[in-house]
Specification:
The chain is built from 10 helices and 11 strands. The protein is of the alpha/beta class. Helix 1 packs antiparallel against helix 7, helix 2 packs parallel to helix 7 and helix 3 packs across helix 4. The protein is globular, with a radius of gyration of 20 Å. The site of 4'-deoxy-4'-aminopyridoxal-5'-phosphate has 12 residues, from helix 3.
């Protein structure tokens, strides 16, 4: 027996490639092409670096208060962490302890199975239909918890409140997490359902609609008991997941509603142009409710297109996985980036 036998054996999540060069178009990680609000940049610039000698506010109270105000909730209904990946991992740890398998779609965010492996949570996946739609009735079965990304990733399909309600109605006894990482780009939030369903938790992030992927801020909204279980999980793992700079910058972002709305509408209008442009080239893609599209070409293999685009310094995301291995996930970039992408695709042979 060697120490090597005791190292973790897990297939970790693979994030979008980060090429080691500067002059390229990065459409592979669903980042926002626009900078964060000028107020965020100002908050960082004006942050008194001397204060770094002290620990941050352990429970990120000032940021949670700003979020609570924005959503019309109490601070006790909000948990904040180091990116929504951190928050989701804590949710899995805090809510899925029944020993029964949790359920989520077969095509969804590929971090879910990794957290299950890591935390030894049994799980079952439920196939989406041939158009990548989730059938809510399929979730009416015994389970130890439910996770639904809405809009879903990488499919980009967003569903309305009746869909989440249907899932909640048949799952009164387990926690239902709705991962709304992309909801601000025209999706419909389950927020109004929080009053009605005490087992609902919503997670959101500053990485996409708030252009702050590099800062790592995510949060969960839910009833007080749910949120206090998250704090118990956090305080058994890392007391200070959010640093002081992130808390200050996060508040500045939340308080600049105008910039937030403006950036989102730019991304949405570029998304519509990208969608039309790709369809004009013969790509098949569902209408997107996110800041990315999920496209397939009947003539060209997705992997080949992905490699071809790399030769033009354009990076998109390809998943070598059953059911989606002929699809590309393409992030909505600036207008100029979309032009370059469409120009490059015109060179496909
Ligand atoms: N949920 C989904 C569906 C995502 O695609 C992502 C981004 N990879 C996340 C959560 C996590 O984002 P972050 O940790 O940057 O908040």
């Amino acid at each position: 027996m060697s120490w090597k036998d005791n190292l973790i054996k897990i297939q970790p999540y693979t994030a979008g490639e980060q090429p080691n060069k500067t002059d390229f178009i990065k459409l592979n990680a669903n980042e926002n092409p626009y900078p964060p609000s000028p107020e965020v940049i100002r908050a960082i610039r004006e942050f008194n670096g001397e204060n770094l000698k002290k620990y941050p506010n352990a429970d990120a109270v000032p940021l949670r208060a700003a979020l609570a105000k924005r959503f019309g909730l109490e601070c006790e209904n909000v948990f904040a962490g180091n990116g929504s990946d951190d928050v989701l991992a804590l949710c899995f740890r805090a809510f899925f302890n029944s020993g029964k398998p949790i359920i989520y779609p077969d095509i969804t965010y590929s971090f879910y199975p990794v957290w299950c492996e890591m935390l030894k949570i049994p799980y079952e996946t439920i196939p989406v239909d041939e158009n990548f739609n989730i059938n809510a009735a399929d979730y009416d079965r015994p389970n130890g918890g439910v996770v639904i990304a809405n809009p879903n990733a990488p499919t980009s399909i967003g569903r309305g409140p009746d869909f989440i309600r249907e899932i909640l109605d048949c799952n009164r006894e387990s926690v239902v997490i709705v991962d709304e990482a992309y909801v601000d780009f025209g999706g419909i939030s389950a927020l109004p359902l929080l009053n009605e369903y005490e087992n609902l938790v919503i997670t959101q992030t500053f990485s996409k609609s708030r252009s702050m992927a590099g800062m790592r801020i995510g949060y969960a909204l839910g009833n007080k008991e749910i949120i206090s279980a998250l704090f118990a999980a956090k305080d058994s793992y890392n007391s200070y997941p959010m640093d002081s700079v992130a808390i200050a910058a996060g508040i500045a972002s939340v308080e600049d509603e105008e910039y937030f709305a403006e950036t989102i509408s730019r991304v949405i209008s570029s998304r519509e142009r990208l969608t039309e442009g790709l369809r004009a080239f013969g790509f098949d893609l569902p209408d997107s409710s996110a800041n990315f599209v999920f496209a397939e070409h009947p003539k060209y293999a997705a992997r080949d297109i992905c490699e071809f685009l790399k030769t033009k310094d354009i990076y998109v995301r390809y998943f070598s996985k059953p059911r989606i291995d002929n699809r590309l996930r393409i992030t909505v970039g600036t207008e100029e980036e979309i032009d370059k992408l469409l120009d490059a695709l015109a060179g496909l042979k």
